[in-house]
Amino acid sequence: MKKQEKVKITSGVVYSVYLLSEALLKELESALSEKYECVIELENRIDPSLIHGIKVEIDNFVLDDSTKAKLASLKEQLLKRGGFGHAID
After folding, report:
1. Is-contact 67 51, C-beta < 8 A?
2. From residue 40, how far is each of 15, 71, 82 by CA, in Å?
3. Which of 4, 18, 54, 70 has the most CB atoms within 10 Å of its CB?
């Protein structure tokens, strides 16, 4: 008989502008569990400041695919280049 392997369960939070459906939350948990090879359980919290998209926090890891994060990144890039006066790649 094989020893039963211990399953590591990791909790996290997914922030979204609107409450995610249970099916979508489970799909996200499944995809992240497969990618990180552990069982991930997510709690959904509402954050209207994201504008659109989601942000996932698991332990010290953050996956931010929100419009707010994309706009902040664009702003940073523009400031580094000195604004719109320079060619954009």
Report:
1. yes
2. 15, 28, 42
3. 54
Amino acid at 25: L
Average pLDDT on 72-85 reads 81
Q: Which residues contact 26 (CB under 8 A, 6 or more apart)?
A: none
Per the document, the length of the chain is 89
**How far is Cα of residue 21 from the mean position of the Cα atoms in its chain?**
16
Give the Cα separation of 45 and 20 in Å (integer): 9
Greater pLDDT, 88 or 73: 73
SS3 88: coil
Residue 24 has pLDDT above 80, yes or no: yes
Please state, as a whole number, how many other Cβ atoms lie within 10 Å of the Cβ of residue 66: 20
